Amino acid sequence: MSASLLQLRPDLAVICDWIRPGARILDLGCGDGTLLAHLAAHQNVTGYGLEIDAGKVARCVAAGVNVIQADLDDGLRDFDTGSFDYVVMTQALQALQRPDDAIAEILRVGRVGIVTFPNFGHWRVRTALAAGRMPVTPSLPDRWYDSPNIHLCTVADFEALCAERGWRVLSRRLLDRSHREGARIGIAPNLFCELALYMLQSPERVK
Amino acid sequence: MNAGFAADSVGLVAARRVAITQALALDCGRTLPQHELMVETYGTLNAARSNAVLICHALSGDHHAAGYTHADERKPGWWDSCIGPGKPIDTRRFYVVSLNNLGGCKGSTGPNTLNPDTGTPYGPDFPLLTVRDWVRSQALLADALGIERWAAVIGGSLGGMQVMQWAIDLPQRVGHALVIAAAPKLSAQNIAFNEIARQAILSDPNFHGGRFYDHGVVPTHGLKLARMLGHITYLSDEAMRAKFGRLQRVNQFSFNFEVEFEVESYLRYQGQSFVERFDANTYLLMTKALDYFDPAREYGDDLAAAFARAQARFLVVAFTSDWRFSPARSREIVKALVRAGRDVSYALIDSQLGHDDFLMPIPQYHEVLRGYLDRVAREAGT
After folding, report:
1. Is pTM beyond 0.90 here?
2. Active-site residue B351, yes or no?
3. Backbone phi, psi, residue A11, to 5°
4. Distance of CA A74 to the CA centre of its chain
5. Is B157 a residue of the active site?
């Protein structure tokens, strides 16, 4: 991992590590364009971000990041099959109408898809539920009534979906509360992982 | 220089006439041996000549884009909200060039100027033009002004079409292309509206086959109808509802065809004031240029193939309430640019008015323009 990655959010740093230099990427829900700007500056990566929020779009434009204002729930029909090396979606999956359709689209448009989500199997979540309350945790800070998250899943749920749809898991990184891969994660990943990162491929995209 | 005007106004401006002495071969097959263009400029060209910005006007626009031509002018130029010191197109940093297109009616060579061969106005003898012809003419203007490469070419509506054509036809001369409220080509519905506008003018008895100047009359009726129709397409249903609703001038039906509803009064006023400032032959010519615009046509109807030639970075902007050139049309442009691998950003501006919103100082819109153009200016070294 290069020194420049240190100032990035840990999950974004992992993604930068996964993406090879010079690649063409599409970043879904790109926010203010941090990932794209970083990849462009340090890894000669080109591409576009998709973002629905007008304020974030304006910040991307001001930062010189290619951004296309769009609603991810409208799908990726404006993008050709296999037209990007990577399609990335960080921590937006759980807020979509149909996450399964979204991943299928990601794996159609991208030769490789990278998806991250907060693990609903984390022990803090389970503890809250065991006490009869919806969880409010560092990675899920919203309350049940004001949360944008409508389709939460656990690491086990996600991997079951991948197996069911035949998506190949090329790589997986499970980060704990401090967004590191602590020792406990190896013992009980679905209990100690707070943020899950997956690199996926559709069987049809295999070269 | 700016005395009596707002601090962010370019203040008093003076147009000048630039003679283009090179022959211009037109798409219709004819050649104009020379022509003249009316031009306003704002700001100062830097020593490196790297800070020039071209403004392309829409159907009824002209060279007077910002400031005031005289101290008591009632309204400033047509895009004054966007051009000036500290405004998104910042005249402290950019040298802004705005022209009246060839075929216009505000002093540039066009149907209402004298044909040197006959000594009378061209009228219907003036050639029909395409957006490509305008780009060629504007490139000759750039040569005359000593501008090798534009830092940015900017335009809304028909102006946005000129921007796209610039980026495709003269890729090495455009740094950034700002395409606002435009479409990659007209739809059948767009052409249909234009056709009704043209028929209104052509069927006016005072049109005289376009030679109305010789008869000392103006086809006011036809031109007024054309403008009234156009105005409906520039406004959203919601904007008309909000502005006029079913308001009547007097609160009872008069059972005749005089103006009763406020919207009728508005359209008549818009039509009438247009007739006083615009030329019917130019209106016909402009609508045909719109209809003909289709840059993908010479690239096997593949817009991405057309954009593959471009080198500029693009900003595409659309407005939610615009139904004349809806956001879906802008997304066609964006899709083709992505397919061509061009740098592009696309902003969808939440708006109420309709197509005309591209002229309005909507905060979200101006924030995007300002952010984008700030980078353009820094790139240009200003």
Report:
1. yes
2. no
3. -65, -35
4. 18
5. yes
